[in-house]
Amino acid sequence: MNPSNLVVILSFLSTSVLAADNCDFRLTSSGGYCICNSTYCDTVPPLVDLKSGEYQFYSTSKTNLGFGSVTGKFSVNSFSEVTVTININNTHQRIFGFGGAFTDATGINIKRLPEKAQELLLEAYFGENGIQYSIGRVPIGGTDFSTKGYTYCDTEDETLAAFALQPEDNDYKIPFLKKAIQLRGQENIKFFASAWSAPIWMKTNDEYNGFGKIKDEYYATWAYYYLKFFDAYKEQGIDFWAVTTQNEPINGLIGTSVQNNGFSYDEMKIWIKDYLGPTIRNSTYSDIKIIAHDDQRFLIPLLNNYILSDEETVNYIDGIGVHWYTDFIIPPEFLIYASSQYKDLFVLSTEACIDSVTNQGVVVDFGSWHRGERYLDDIMDDLSYDVIGWVDWNMVLNETGGPTWISNEVDSPIIVNGTDESFYKQPMFYAIGHFSKFVVPNSIRVDADIDDTDVRVLAFVRPDEKIAVVLWNKSSDKKEVTVNILDKSGTVTLDPLSINTLLYAK
Ligand SMILES: *[C@@H]1O[C@H](CO)[C@@H](O)[C@H](O)[C@H]1NC(C)=O
Ligand SMILES: *[C@@H]1O[C@H](CO)[C@@H](O)[C@H](O)[C@H]1NC(C)=O
Ligand SMILES: *[C@@H]1O[C@H](CO)[C@@H](O)[C@H](O)[C@H]1NC(C)=O
Ligand SMILES: *[C@@H]1O[C@H](CO)[C@@H](O)[C@H](O)[C@H]1NC(C)=O
Ligand SMILES: *[C@@H]1O[C@H](CO)[C@@H](O)[C@H](O)[C@H]1NC(C)=O
Ligand SMILES: CC(=O)N[C@H]1CO[C@H](CO)[C@@H](O)[C@@H]1O
Predict the structure, then answer these.
(1) For residue 298, what are the contacts with CB-CB under 8 A and spacing of at least 6?
(2) Distance 128 CA to ligand 5 centre (A)
(3) Where would you find the membrane-spanning parts of this chain (predicted)?
(4) Is 0.85 surpassed by the pTM of this model?
């Protein structure tokens, strides 16, 4: 048949399928993953130029991983058993973005791959045919996902004259941060920095981890250390949008094996209002946003009572960072406490991963759909409570969930297999991908209702005016769903156990 006939025939169909590089699917006992190597990796089919009333529908399911895409048209009357109603007039938060962390372990694992595979992996996260992360978290020095404890000034020197970036920055972080900037464009990716441990000579216990705090006499030095870090990264062409006040300060109070600086809430208040806040605001980095907390959801009421209630302290704060590690027992309603009576603060989810507390003894559960669903559940909870974005922990880990010098192995959306130089994109990758790819920065969340409790929905009006409707079917039934937007409606099919995004042009 000649091509013009084909076009005529296609125009009579309500939907057409769009091609891209498909997932090379590997079935596992808990789901499956897409395997990629130096010559092949699945991509996201490009967004088509939709005309008014047309839609593009992207779908990922437990048995059909990757991003399938079809296009179609809304009509005046469409019906099915499940109805979704979008009200674009009822607006909520503005989305900032989605992303992951540039840990040493991430860089170490990327470097285990041949150069071509490294490129495909970075494209999967940041490229135009990938899920286009817009946020990167950068540790200030080492974390539990390093091969040892270290800082930028391990020898005692109160002037910090010996401050220097380490081989880990040059080998495992900076090259990949630069690549992310190059793939995404400088203005489309925002970085925030977080510190784990100060040099041990500044600390009460002379250790990176355990029960430790910054000695009183070193608060000013520790604040100055942040400026030295911004200087050193600026020299490499890397600027920061924000900084958190301390990664999980609770760890130093309860003595965990993760590198830390413990701060009680009273100490944190002093740290912010007398040291970190004024140091940053009086520097050439005065525009850098300050994100308080960077700790668990269950601690938010304490943050509210001790930090947000202090006007002088809250004036230095732009936002609040929350970690997901107790979310399975602490409801998202706790996020409401994070809204201060003094100032509008944004709430950003700054860390999440499947850790040992909830992994049921399986560190890397290859292809787990359930773990993808745990990401979906938390992202959707957070976004429905006005959180502006969600940031994953390690972007890449090895086959056993490392390396980590304190044996805190966890799972990750991408796992590298060093034996055959391939990498595996797990359901968690596609779960966060439906948000990072389609709910682009500056989208506004709007009301979305559904008459079926097994399907969760969120809707957004994007800056390009398209409406993004994200639909998660939690159950094993395939169903037809009618989406009503303004005066039109369209019916789409949700596969069993699937995450779907409908993009609609008004
Ligand atoms: C890379 O993946 C593609 C697609 O799965 C496969 O055809 C090819 O053989 C793989 N190459 C290597 C070197 O494994
Ligand atoms: C939204 O607002 C527009 C313009 O004000 C109005 O025409 C429309 O009916 C409203 N839609 C809903 C669902 O309230
Ligand atoms: C900047 O520093 C001066 C003196 O060191 C101090 O008085 C002032 O409060 C600081 N400014 C800010 C915004 O903290
Ligand atoms: C993978 O991680 C484990 C666990 O931390 C670590 O012991 C091992 O050395 C790592 N292997 C490679 C090849 O990175
Ligand atoms: C890594 O690849 C090798 C070769 O294909 C395979 O034998 C091994 O099982 C893979 N490892 C994992 C953890 O899947
Ligand atoms: C839209 C959709 O597919 N909904 C179904 C998901 O699965 C549950 C449980 O089987 C059904 O009740 C829903 O109708």
Answers:
(1) 326, 329, 330, 334
(2) 29
(3) none
(4) yes
- Could you confirm whether 168 is annotated as catalytic? no
- With pLDDT > 90 as the criterion, what percentage of the chain qualifies? 90
Catalytic pick from 248, 267, 373, 409?
248
Domain holding 396, by residue range, is 97-438
CATH number at residue 501: 2.60.40.1180
Backbone angles phi, psi at 159, to 5 degrees: -85, -10
Q: Is ligand 6 within 6 A of the CB of residue 477?
A: yes
pLDDT in tens, 31-45: 999 999 999 999 999
Residues 86 and 101 in one domain: no
| pLDDT surpassing 80 at residue 17 | no
Look at residue 365 and tell me if it is in a domain: yes
To test ligand 5's pocket by mutation, which of 36, 417, 426 has the most ligand atoms within 8 angstroms of CB? 417
What is the per-residue burial (b if ≥16 Cβ within 10 Å, else e) of 246-271? Answer: bbbbbbbbeebbbbbbbbebebbbeb
Residue from 123, 168, 267, 351 carrying the catalytic annotation: 351
- How remote is the C-alpha of 67 from its chain's centroid? 19
Ligand 2, closest atom to CA 90?
14
From ligand 1's centre to the CA of 399, what distance in Å? 19
Is the pLDDT confidence value at 14 over 90?
no
